[in-house]
Task: structure prediction
Amino acid sequence: MMYNQYWGLTEAPFENTPNPKFLYHSKEHEEALFRLLYVVQQRKGAAVLTGIFGCGKTVLGRALLNQLNKNIYRVAIINNPYLKSVELLRSIARQLGVTELCENLSEMSADTFLQRIEEILVNNHRDGKETLVIIDEAHLIRDDDIFEELRLILNFQTEERFLLTLILMGQTELLDKVRKHKPFAQRVALGYTLAPFDLQDTQKYIEHRLGVAGVKNAQLFTSKALEVVFQNSGGIPRRINQICDMSLLTGFNNNASLVDDKIVEDVIASLGV
Result:
């Protein structure tokens, strides 16, 4: 990043990528992570994490994975919810290690994939392994049959426990989709919605990311600038990152010693956010 050296940074602080080391543990995010860990570690079946676009769901999912023992957990992550139900089952099976899967959509059988998934879940359980399936952007699911197939996967149980944990993450409209499919909804042990940051958390979030990126005990944004960032980002991390990134670039270009409210306002005007 061209402004890193100017501001004393060792790396770019406001990239919109799900890097868990930049996760700011707001009270909201701490609570969400605590609940997701509970569902996974206590084998509660399914959880639904929702929030508006850019509020940190994906990075929270990565933080969850970082807290799980990679020698124990077998994980499938689905990032393409536009799949047909049978394609989704194939993708889950493949990521969990099932081999020799059919590639021709017209020849695919949901029953076959379910059987293969059950086999690997049973094998994982026998070997002392846990199985986790995460579906990101799940609000974009278009094939309603997917919820029935997910319900069937959750039916794979011993007398004492589920054989896998399923986490759906998406924007808030995902809740309506889940509620429409009552047999699946009844298997959801946890629903949690991430709220945007308030002013205090917005300020701490910015300071945290700057600290991770190498700025120690230095105030790069004035208090007024931070207020303007909050007012125009709505406390949404993705928007905060966008505004702060361009503000640092503008400050660098202007040879500024600090990012003030005028710089932020100019950036907001140019971004149209």
